[in-house]
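Deliverable D5.2: sample structural annotation.
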Amino acid sequence: MIEEPMGMDFMFTFGPIFIGAIFILVFGIIIFTIIKGIGTWSKNNQSPRLNSFAKVVTKRTSVRGGGETRAHNVYYVTFEFDSGDRLELHVNGQEYGQLVEGDDGELTFQGTRYLGFTRH
């Protein structure tokens, strides 16, 4: 009979547990992200639609993906209200291209959802 080295028992015991833990962790992160997205969507739906005078203060982009996956841009615009409060909202690429830093106008939003901006 061939004797196995002491480390082999450890690998056959620890390996499946480690792989199972990684699977549960990844699955948990996916479920958490889905629940968080649904919570934000629900909170935005329950928020009132607001129209407020605001100024476009700054714009920024964030690149997601790349490498082995397709990269895409995510666009954000920061608005400043008369009170001095600021709000950064996610906008689509077309809106991002049309908004210019320094623009004054009426911002329409619902929670963290951008609905539109009308220049004055």
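Annotation notes: Residues 1-46 form one domain. The mean pLDDT is 90.
The annotation will be released with the project's public dataset once the embargo ends.
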